[in-house]
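Protein entry
_____________
===
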Amino acid sequence: MNHIERIAAGLEQQGLDAMLISSAPGEFYAVGFQGEGYAIITKSACRYSTDARYIEAAEAIEGAELICISPTKGHAEYAAETVAAWNIKRLGIEDEYMSVQEYSKLKGLMPEVEFVPASEYMAQLRAVKDEDELQCMRAAQDITDRSFTEILNYIKPGFSEKEIAARLTYLQMSMGASVNSFNPIVASGPNGSMPHAIPSDKLIQSGEFVTLDFGCMFGGYCSDMTRTVCVGKPTEEMELVYNTVLKAQLAGIELCRGGVRGCDVHNAAADVIAAAGYGEYFGHGYGHSLGIEIHENPRANAVNDKPIPTGAVLSAEPGIYIPGKFGVRIEDLIIYCENGYEDYTKSPKNLICL
């Protein structure tokens, strides 16, 4: 699976002679391969450079001429040769990923070439998933859902947050994932008030919430979900907060469709939480896009007043976090369709008490 033709098709509209792909996620999107290489794409050609460690595997790439760099002649030098041979004057670059050092080296080798920031162009392409990408994300989410079902057997007093996180990693890998899409978050009791808590040696205790935020990669694409469960019996306040978060999540999901503004989705959830008196405890956006990377654009947050395109996949993850007490977050994976949405996450969202 690669997107060479899709990138090439939009170059003229962007005013570019070619696009230089130099980041690992951009490389995977463009040529369907990760080999620490560069891809240069014009309207009619693609040249991909990698090194001896990857060159044999790279032969599977379709639609690209392969170049093997050497210890004395690297990606930048071959890129400069290609740009000169193809008479490229305006070259799109992934400015959000490129370091100052990398930019300076390339510019020094190609002083007459205009480097055009084009990360936004690539982000727009990557935001809209094709069916092959969606299949990978469905498969990844299925693994994550099945891992959640299994991990419920291990969430009990005496187990540490670290042990649960390690078990989640094992479960996803054993079910076919290539790797975690990010380090699992396991936060129990007062640690749950930190949205990105790092699993610790803290032992789970009865009467606590445990928040699990995790995902995996399948075919190069990510899943992401969060569930909050209770060990033992919850208090009335815990039930109220949980039900408020769930109501907020559902309010946002009901608006999800291609063309909706990200801020409208976010505000639908934020209004529910504020009405319940917990507005000050919801401090992040409702959701983010994901795909090759766990955090991509566009976002469903308070400031994104632009429409989310049909075919985008975003998380739906409002939360309430009360310092020193507990936190609750519920997260699903939502595809924004032309006339509605599809929820890839199948795990139950009722409050599970273990």
In short: The chain has two domains: 4-127, 131-343. The longest strand covers residues 208-214. The radius of gyration is 23 Å. Residues 4-127 form a domain with the Creatine Amidinohydrolase; Chain A, domain 1 fold (CATH 3.40.350.10).
